[in-house]
Here is the input.
Amino acid sequence: MLGPNGAGKTTSLRMIAGLLRPDAGTIEIFGRDALADPVAAKRLLSWLPDEPMLYDKLTPLEYLEFVAGLWGIGARQAESRAQALLERLELWDHRDERCEGFSRGMKQKAALAGALIHDPRLLILDEPLTGLDAAIARQVKDLLQERARAGCTIILTTHILDVAERLVDRIGIIRAGALIVEGTLDQLRAEAGSEKASLEDVFLSLVAAPGAAD
Amino acid sequence: MTRRPITLPPGSFLWLLRHELRLRFRGMSNRMNAPFLGGTCAMLHLFGLLVAVGVSRMAPVPHATVLVGLGILWLSTLLFMLSGTLTAATQALYERGDMDLLLASPLSRRAILWSRATAMAASLTLSSGFWFWPIANGFVLFGHTAALGAYLLVPAVALLATGLGIALTLALFRLIGPRRTRLVAQIIGAVTGIGFALVFQGPNLLSVEAKRQLYQHLAAAGNALDGVALLPGRAVLGEIGPLLLSLAVGGGLFALVAFGLARSFTGATVAAIGATGGRSRPTRPARRFHRGTVAILRRKELRLLVRDPWLLTQVSQQVVGVLPIAFVLYRHEIGYGTLAWLALVAAAGLFGGGFVWLTVVGEELPDLLAAAPLKPRTVLWGKLQAAYLPIACLVLPVSAIAAAGTGGPWLGLTLGLCSAGAALSIGMLDLQYAAPAKRGDFRQRHQGRAVLAVGEMLMAMGWVGTAALMLIHSPWALALGLVLLAPLPGGLLKFGRANRV
Here is the structure.
């Protein structure tokens, strides 16, 4: 999901995650009405904001135990998943250190592990790569692609258009609270009338187009 | 015509000081309105006038005794201020705030510490002067012009306390390292606060006979002490020489610390990063994961309570504030030995308020909990369990010990019931009326909610009173207890409606 600052990307994601109630309309998550039965819908999804959601005074392992408990994952299963995720994200050696001493990238990885601990069918990520160095960004992208290949649907917002161009299957552009266009990169190029344009060119031409949101 | 702001050279001491003072007092102007300040000020003037009238009608007291008594007042004020500066100096080291920005700027370390320390002293002067100066004015109105000396004495003691507070914190930092300094400084701050409360309220706790003996000791001390020991008393009395000497000593120590310890202070600030976030902090390895959502919620909250760095200071300061007043109120009803047990009731109540605030109101990640597939009531239930479990662990054994001792089962039952009542009613008060805030704002949780702060204190005192009444088998205990349980239905209603939020 792309859009200029203030377009409503985060607001949309927060509504899907059940943190905000929309004024109008419906939200369905894999056939479940998220407004009528939020608990059932929330079971299927995970939300990761741009600022890592972590308790500074907990260790990554304690945090994962807590998040797994919130989603009702059994202790044994949660334990093995936590170990697998922390090892995959190279945090296992830091499992008993409090998160307050972690770097931004380590915090983001620990928070991502929390978002994946209950194996969600829908993963909602708000600016997941902001502030990460190249190596950690690569780890995160690899993990997301693995999850996508395993059948997880991922919605993410980003301002890094190169990432969007290479990582995602479908792109939606939002402006002033409205989805102005949605489709594959080729479909967007066609919409913008330029078949060889980069995503940046497509984005700028669509967002700048007068009345595009109307 | 528009008012032009006063321009100060950027980076200068005054420029930095203005920045510090603006940060310290900006929040305060939002919290207090003019009628509140004016009303309190008028009341304090009236109180000062009444004290002046009372003093003028007292039987003549030997001058030396007066000097010793006033010296003790000076000492208790110094202890009170020292308690505040220890906390402020520790915060300056550990709570990064804008310290990183200042240290990364080309400003000199000396200017940074000088301005920060001056702001600390100014803030102490104004907050203490707010209480002392109107009382001094009352004396002046009654003809005791020497009381004007309070306008010099309060800043003098504030400068002394600031210098001592910073020096003591840095000494601790050097002696025991950054990890332990925060905890030890908090304990010293709390003990100093208790010292202040005992010195200030001590005479009120004594029986008539004990008080008479105390005055005899004071008179003897007054006669035995030499001139230097009586100087603080003379300064409080408004004698110009001792006043100027106080100012010179306070200002001298302050300047010595602000100029001499600038390098140590900024060095300690940098070193404190290791204790607060710059370096990973190993924790006892986690054992196996636990089962059950509520159990896991409870466990997480208990972990965070145990690891909260400011909890100790906060609650102990509140208990220190409540106990002496409560003891003074009820000392005639029951013996002192029994009265000491009632500290448990006040502590349980204030812990109840603090823990409910920390677990429920100060949730760090409300979005995480909101995004989880849980009913809000389940979350609240787990959090309340975590808030009340440590209190039960404190109250039950202490009540059992009291019951097994000379107090008998009735004392144990009284302690158990009244502690539970206090914890529940103050906790439910916080649950309903506390404004959501970050966990880190625990120490400032009553800002802008003065009514809630006063309510907590009154409830704690009320429950101590209920316990005192129970111990003398007064039927009024039931009535008072029921009144004090007033926040309970509102809290239960909020709990019942949690799922609708």
